[in-house]
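retry 2 of 3: previous attempt timed out while embedding adenosine-5'-diphosphate. Reduced batch size to 1 and resubmitted. Inputs unchanged:
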Amino acid sequence: MTNDNQQRQQQPFDIDASVNVESEEAMMFNAALDEQNLDARELPLVVLGEMVIMPHMTVPLQVGQGKSYRAMERAWDEDREVLLIFVSEHEIESYKNGQARDLPRIGVMAKLEEFIKLPDGIVRIVLEGMSRARIVDVTQSEPFYRVRCDLIYDPEVAGAEIEALMDTVKQQVDEFVDYLGEVPQEAIAFVHRIQQPGHLADLVTWGPAFEFSDRLDILNALDPVERLRKAYFILARQLELLKLRQKIQQDTKEVLDQGQREYFLREQMRIIRRELGEDDDSDDPVDELRRKIAELNAPDYVKEQALHEVKRLAQQGMNSPEAGVIRTYVDWIVNLPWGDEEHAEISISEAQKVLDTDHYGLEKVKERILEYLAVRKLAGKKMRSPILCFVGPPGVGKTSLGRSIARALDRKFARTSLGGVRDEAEIRGHRRTYIGAMPGRIIQAMKTAKSNSPVFMLDEIDKVGMDFRGDPTSALLEVLDPEQNNAFSDHYLEIPYDLSKVIFIATANQLEPIPSPLRDRMEIIEIGGYTEDEKIEIARGFLAPKQLEFHGLTAEQLVIDDSALIKIVRGYTREAGVRNLEREIASLCRKVARKVATVQDEDTSESSTVSYTISEADVATYLGPERFSYGLAEEKDEVGVATGVSWTPTGGDVLSIEVLPVQGKGTLHLTGQLGDVMRESAQAAMSYARSRAELFGVDPSYFDEHVIHIHVPEGAVPKDGPSAGITLTTALISAMTGKPVRRDVAMTGEVTLRGKVLGIGGLKEKTLAAHRAGIKTFIMPRENAKDIVELPDKVRQDLHLVPVSSMDEVLKIALHNGF
Ligand code: ADP
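retry 2 succeeded.
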């Protein structure tokens, strides 16, 4: 019955047509209402938009002019009662204009508690809802509507089910209050005191859970229990929504909190940075990296890889443990030279000029370099140009030649030393998974060079080792192979790097230790040591001017005369190259610079005229006592002492070999840190001497009665090699026979048991050393005679070179009154 009623009540009726109250339907309607304590009234009509004032509610409002205003004005003068109806926002306009055709059937009879006209035409009113009312008829439409209506009062209802429902709704209200807060305690207490379901339902609609349509729904529900049920469902739905919304808010808040925390920390960091003066004004580091990548002159695959990493960085955040690793990696990528550079055509004459300006002598070496450059110029990319490898002792200018080549080609210069490299990872880097991983030496040097086509020097390629950590040689082969090096793989970088534009030059002290696959790939250019004259020239023309400039001295302020240079070369250095010579000159410059500066302190006008000329006698005052004794190894011709020459990777040197026979039981005693090969040479010398004893006029029993002690001075220096053979034999035979050895003779050569003299290596270094030591005659194997042309002119002029093929020849020259 109630449901039926509601259905009908929701049907709006037409004002103009007005309802036919005598109709059957209307009669049923009225009959039903009669059962509900109807009370008929005729009331002025007030239309309110988007709001519902329920019975028991008191609401203050402001209204403007219009029909509703006029209705209230009249009511205020009469019994202050009005009928409120509630319409939506878009309907209200038409009611105001008096064009409304349909009125809702159910409204609320209300009492005007206040009606105050404000100066600007606005009226403040207070309405108190009294009871529901059903409109029956419109009795007047101008100047305001007046309607006839029946008041509807809720019947009193009770029951356990109703109690339970009311409790539930009250709980819902409590829950709402929990979520919303800020609801006055009295209001809640008031709700809890309500006894009737209809009243409760009406009251809760004032809460924010109810929308206008919900409120209308509640208003139209005449059955109080049904009304409360409706309110319950609306509240339940809204509570659910509220909970959901709160959860979403909570989640969002957490995300926001985290973001805020990060922002806060970053801000602090930025401020700290700025205070420390490290602020580069770059905002977000990720953006900064992205910008750098965008500006990078590099192939696409490089940029893609870098961007991929930056994306990872952005996802993980700057504070993640991996951020540092990723950043370092991206920094490496953006700081490496990837893009091609233009280089001017190689001008051979220009290159020659540069080489000549930077280096004295080295004619053959320069020629080879120029040939190499010429081929590079003509053949260009078509030819696999070989890799140059300079082999020679330290300080002969290998590195500075490399620099000159770079200068001549207008390229950057990169350099890495391979000395002691035993691990492939040193060349190729470690994978990023290693803690503190870095790219290998090649990539590191490329970064420093800031060019993808520098002249790249691989120093000490003869000192590359090999052990369980992998063979660096294979990595080097890849670096040097033009077929492969356009995509060199460094473990750290992970992406290929193009080394094909690089001009590689290797250096080594010795040729032999270079692994043959590497050696095959290189064009070997040997650079020998310098003669004394050459050293003086280099010192005068290159080292001294360079050091003067370096120390801020002018050529007038410091003059080193040739006698001083000779003294430095002889007394303060003993080397194949000029490295120590340069060091000594630098030390001289330092001392003079101090003097000049001191004079300047005292009298500025004088400093420009002050001048120091260093002559032979002054050297010791500046550089201290001589470090090496110059001259022949021995002061006079001695029995049992012969002069040999040794060769080491750092150049040649002269050395004395002493033999002392002492009474005893025919054995051989060797001292002076001799290596196995040298010991065997000594054995062979003994056997030879023994077999020839009679020829030399020595009793063969001599060897049974003597202990032959052979010593090579400078015992701290290890010595080895077969080339001391003839020297050992000469010293031994001198000792046996008592014939002195000529002290101005030096010799080198391997000896066989039968006294044949075999060839040796390093002739140039050895003759240079002998020349340095003031030797007049140099005995050498005949096999090496072909190498004489290679020797410096000065050596050939000053040294009497005697090629020999047998021990007999050696003894004839070396011994006084030889055999
Ligand atoms: P290396 O690399 O062979 O050990 P460096 O190139 O370091 O030798 O040379 C040492 C120093 O000697 C450098 O200052 C270099 O310029 C100088 N030098 C070497 N040879 C010559 C030369 N022929 N002319 C001029 N300076 C030279």
